[in-house]
Please model this.
Amino acid sequence: MLQHFQYKSMFENTQLPGWTFSFFFKNSRYAGEYLPDGQINWIGETPPEEDNVQKMIHELMTFHVYE
Model:
């Protein structure tokens, strides 16, 4: 489970899509960029269980940003 998930717009003009995010997973901090097409670019290390983590991020971003 992801903990302390945070996101913010990459741009001052919040109508431009693109977000940075960070979270903790298994006691380690991870960060990345969530692009408009749903692609994730990791900043630094890639989390273990990357596929499952990406699914959780997509669900969170859909809930917080697109609804």
Residues 33 and 39 are 8 Å apart (CA to CA). The chain has one domain: 3-66. The longest helix spans residues 50-66. Residues 3-66 form one domain.
